[in-house]
Every structure is written in C-alpha cells, then in structure tokens.
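hey can u check if this looks right to u? its 71 residues, i copy pasted from the old doc so theres a chance i mangled smth
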Amino acid sequence: MDANERIRKLVVLGDNRLKQGLPSKARETFEEALLLAREAGLEDTAGRLVTGRIEDLDRVEAGARKTPPSA
C-alpha cells in the first residue's frame, strides 16, 4: 500500500470516528495521517487535506465548549 492510499484510509477512519462521537480518537488518526504525509513528502497535497480536517475538528471542539448546556 502506498502512502497516498494509507493517508486516505486514515482520513476515512478519522471521519468515521468523528461520526461515532470519538473526537480524541479522530484527532489521533488525523495526526497519524499528517505525520505520514510529512514523512512521504506529501505535505503540500495530502497534508493540506489532513490539516483541514484537524482545523475543522478544532472549530467543532471550540464551539462545543462555548455552547451552554441545555436545561
């Protein structure tokens, strides 16, 4: 399996973990994909995709912390 395929699989796994309500596991998976992209010299292509996923996750988590609990 080449690096692009492995990165794609990790991104899908991270997305699935988010859908399952596991943001910390999703972050670990996205960070693994980003590391792999850097090691494979794919940071400008695949790395941007993964970085975007991590930034989206940051925004979601920040929004969740600001939302007051409903009574």
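Residues 3-63 form one domain.
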